[in-house]
Specification:
The chain is mainly alpha-helical and about 130 residues long. It has a two-stranded antiparallel ribbon. Strand 1 and strand 2 form a beta hairpin. Helix 3 packs antiparallel against helix 4.
């Protein structure tokens, strides 16, 4: 698939080179901007690549590439800061509730533990060294 697109794009007037990377699913097109207007090149690339990607040029997604799938590691990285803030807030609530309400204290402690599990899961590799 990449080789076919490379050769198709490289044959276009004004294109200097086209190099595909099947691992990332990307295609680097180098062209002479003095000969081809960038907006025209973008439209030509979108129209040519859409069938190869299983989409119409103006399909329901507007020809955008699919959103990347989040891996467990990237999800944990994104949740780490909110987990830290949640730990701080739930610990504060737990300490404040200690003097007022035993059930609220226990619930806040459980919430703290849930945030702690997220945080430790994110840093599990450095903890096991």
């Amino acid at each position: 698939m990449c080789k076919r697109l490379e050769s198709e794009f490289a044959a276009w007037d004004g294109v200097t080179s086209a190099t595909g990377n099947p691992v990332t699913g990307s295609l680097l097109v180098i062209y002479d901007a003095a000969r081809i207007v960038p907006a025209e090149m973008e439209a030509r690339v979108a129209a040519a690549a859409a069938p190869a990607c299983g989409r119409g040029a103006g399909g329901e997604d507007g020809g955008r590439p699919p959103r990347p799938v989040l891996s467990a590691g990237s999800l944990l990285r994104r949740l780490n800061r909110p987990a830290k803030i949640g730990m701080l807030g739930s610990l504060s609530l737990s300490l404040a509730a200690l003097a007022m309400n035993k059930r609220l204290h226990a619930a806040a402690g459980g919430l703290y533990l849930a945030f702690l599990v997220l945080h430790l899961a994110r840093h599990r590799e450095s903890l096991t060294k």
